[in-house]
Design brief:
about 300 residues; 8 strands; Rossmann fold; globular; 8-stranded mixed beta sheet; binds S-adenosylmethionine; alpha/beta; 2 domains; Adenine-specific Methyltransferase, domain 2
């Protein structure tokens, strides 16, 4: 199997689900838009399958977008700075991490952010009420080795360089700028675990605002997919999107929950994927076939 490059393990990344989500996308689109891009797992996977030559990557977290810009446009500069930071942790990696974290909170330098993301607990970003990054270092790992990081950065750059627009706006501004012909993939922060005022990510989103934004996309006839709610073991997370949006609801098994395994429970994580009416209209046969496959009938 061909390896899809990725910058870091990022909380909520769709890296492991990207291929299955892409199966519900048209073979070719004029532009793939990710208003909640994170580490751009879907765009990287789509670029690898040559499903689109143009991408719009947006995330409200501007150091993350600056990091993507550097990785895409100046891969060697980023890989060199990561190698330097990584090797400086030799003698006392904990205090080195905290020094880099303090410096990052003052400068918002994306090169420092990459090191923090690679080195922090589960790639899970955390912020205090002042918006300062306050996640702790992972005591068991030293972070991705520089040679592996370089390969990943170069891989992402080769796939996306010259094909990307990058912005750090609120998702609603991005949705104002999309048009029919675009395919929009929306992967907002999980509700419940990261509403507004939560320490995960830099901002949350309100359910009602989100539903309204999806209604507007429907009115404009835009094809889109949404990853939203789901289930871990018996426990549901997130509110189901309303029927009035006319979305096709698909469930994807995302695998065993590592959190639950740590606590000695064997629980599967199921994630919802919603397809817009405009997307379903473009590929009715393909969708029925995929549904049957998922249900084990084919
Ligand atoms: C679940 S993560 C996306 C993960 C991404 N699909 C990946 O594979 O890496 C959600 C992202 O939404 C971003 N975000 C939160 N509120 C936002 C907003 N109002 N507008 C745009 N992005 C936002 C967060 O910074 C976070 O990176």
């Amino acid at each position: 199997m061909i390896r899809v490059p990725h910058l870091v393990q990022y909380q909520g990344s769709k890296r492991s689900l990207a291929q299955r989500i892409l199966a519900f996308c048209p073979r070719s689109v004029s532009r793939l838009v990710e208003p909640f891009a994170g580490t751009a797992a879907m765009s990287v996977a789509a670029a690898m399958q040559r499903r689109s030559r143009k991408f719009w990557l947006n995330d409200l977290n501007s150091p993350l977008i600056e990091l993507l810009k550097l990785a895409i446009n100046h891969p060697q500069e980023l890989a060199n700075s990561y190698a330097d930071l990584w090797s400086q942790q030799e003698s006392d990696s904990m205090s080195h991490y905290f020094r880099v974290r303090t410096e990052f909170n003052e400068s918002h330098d994306p090169k420092l952010f990459l090191y923090l993301l690679a080195r922090c607990v589960k790639g899970a970003v955390r912020y205090n009420s002042e918006g300062d990054f306050n996640q702790s270092p992972d005591k068991r790992r030293r972070g991705t080795r520089p040679e592996t990081m370089r390969k990943n950065i170069e891989g992402v750059s080769q796939l996306l360089r010259g094909h990307c627009e990058l912005t750090a706006w609120d998702y609603r501004e991005v949705l104002e700028g999309v048009s029919p012909g675009d395919l929009v993939y929306l992967d907002p922060p999980y509700q419940g675990v990261c509403g507004r005022g939560d320490s995960r990510y830099l901002s949350g989103i309100e359910f009602d605002d989100f539903v309204l934004a999806l209604e507007k996309l429907n009115q404009k006839g835009i094809a889109f997919l949404v990853s939203y709610d789901g289930q871990r073991g018996e426990k549901r997370f997130g509110q189901v999107l309303p029927k009035s949006l006319g979305l096709e609801h698909i469930t994807l098994t995302a695998g065993r929950s590592s959190q639950a395994t740590l606590l000695g429970r064997d629980e599967m994580t199921i994630e919802s994927l919603y397809l817009s009416p405009s997307l379903c209209k473009q590929h009715p046969q393909k969708l029925i076939h995929l549904h049957l496959l998922l249900l084990g009938f084919s």
